Structures are given as C-alpha cells and as structure tokens.
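Annex B. Sample input.
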Amino acid sequence: MPRPRFFKLEPDKQARIIDGAGQVFALHGYQGASLNQIIAQTDISKGAFYYYFDDKADLFATCVTHALEEVFQSVDFDPQTLTVETFWPALMAMNDRMMTYTNDHPWLVAVGKQLYTSVDDPELKDRLAPLLAHGRSLWAAILVRGQEIGQVRNDLPLELLLAVMNALDVAIDRWFVESWHDYSREELERLTTVALDMIRRMVEAPEA
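Annex B, continued. Sample output.
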C-alpha cells in the first residue's frame, strides 16, 4: 500500500497519479511498464515516486485497490443493511456502478486482465492477496446476509457455496476483461445483467 505521504495529497492529485499509472499498465502490462513511462505519464519526479510508493508493484496494487474501493464507496454497499426487498436490487445497483466506473476508466479493463495474469508473480502475490481476500470476504458477507433474510439457499454448507460463488465470479470477471472490446456498451450491459441473473439462479433460496 502507498506510503502515508501519498494520502496527504489532494484527492485530484491522487486520482491523476493513479489514472496516469493505470493507463501505462494498461498499455504495456505490469512487466512491460517502466518506471520512466509511469513518471512521464503521471508528471511526478522519480524522487516523488519513491516518496509515495515503495516500488512498481506497490503502485500497481494501489491502482487496482483504489478503483475497487471507489466502486464500493459509490454504491455505499453494506451487506448488513440489505433486506428482503433490497437484496437483489442492491446487487444489481452495485453491478451497474461497476459497469459505469469501468466505462469511465477504460484502463481498468486492461489492468484487470493484468490482475489475473499476475496473481502468481512473486513481486505482486503478497501485494494483491489483501485485495483478493477482500473480494472473498465481501461475497461471504453477502451470502450470509442473504441466508439470514431467506434470499440465499441454505441447503449447502456455506464454505461450498462460497467456493462455487468465488469460482464463478472469477470466471465471469476474466471473461469480461478479455472480451470487453469485442462488444458494444449496450451488449456488455445486457450480458452483465444476464450474468448476475445466472448467479442469482444458482444461489437463490427456492422459496424466495
């Protein structure tokens, strides 16, 4: 994660650095992106770079984490507040917000592709572990809350349901980042809606 000095910057400067670095990673990949390219795109000096980040891996993890945090904050998503009436609509709203954010930050698609190809990279594995763990814990909280209010099936062990859910979520995410530029925005929106409906049909309680 970034050094404390990074968080003392004005929010727009933080965003400019992250967006600029994200564009470089999107264009050249994590391995291919050089520090000089990142510095040129973000308009900061080499000294300032190391003032804010430990290394390139630190910046890459920051780019991905920041983007996902903005998505979750923008929909104010808290599984514990979900009710019978809001459970599935709230998940759809989160899905829509992710689509909007990705369309507004096209570099995120390429960086997302890098995320899946870099999880075993020794430089990145430990940096990305908290991010991947956060995704799993969020789905766990969603499923548990869904069971509590009768919207998610409880005829399977939670660990099994979560394992299947995570596997499907990763498969869907990977397909979208690899196929993003092959479809129109309207078609992608339709496909994400259908994908969420597929998840719903898999985990929804029969009596819901």
